[in-house]
Amino acid sequence: MAGASLRQTSDIPKRTSPRKRRGKKLPDLLAEIAGQWQGEGPIRLMFQDEARFGRISDTRRCWCPKPIRPLCQAMVTQEYTYAYAAVSVSDGQLDTLILPHVNGQCMQLFLDEVASRHPHERIVMVLDGAGWHQSESLSLAPNLRLLKLPPYAPELNPVENLWHYLKSHFWSNRAYADYESLETAAIQAWKTAVLDTKLMKTVCAAPYLNRASSN
Prior knowledge:
Helix content: 25-40%
Order of helices and strands: HEEEHEEHHHH
CATH superfamily: Ribonuclease H-like superfamily/Ribonuclease H
Number of strands: 5
Strand content: 15-25%
Number of helices: 6
Oligomer: single chain
Structural class: alpha/beta
Radius of gyration: 22 Å
Shape: globular
CATH topology: Nucleotidyltransferase, domain 5
């Protein structure tokens, strides 16, 4: 076009530096909490999350002998149960409950259960900013403190790896006749995989924690 001026551009894409998160690092936060927290027993760091498990089937690719073509039954009934979990990355110990809802009342039940399982330890539980995690009605046991994850950072929660593992190994390509069958399958998955501390330590590994401790 006559009279137009064109800006010279480069074919080389600009490099964007990774976003740096502000605030204290986790080791510094834990040291601060331990110093301010008057009590006996070691600090147990746990990461917490919930996952929905329902009768709407999760269809995925699967293996079968050649030349058989697998057929997976589909289900669209909207009935759900919820798995609550808190994992200690250092030793693979996992505390879990299967509950019917995600709300402040069920969260209170889970927090009380975890605190009762570790009466001689000081638990620092890291969790996201879900509304039921911040309910004013929550009452914390003397041996429990909550630490909020940075916003929009699910990759920092090792429990996310657990959900991926359970969905791929136990909760996909299956249909359930009723809610009781759904709940039974969820509990069976916990008994088969979650009670294996060595497996959970591998599945829920968080290399960034090691890097943060060494810096």
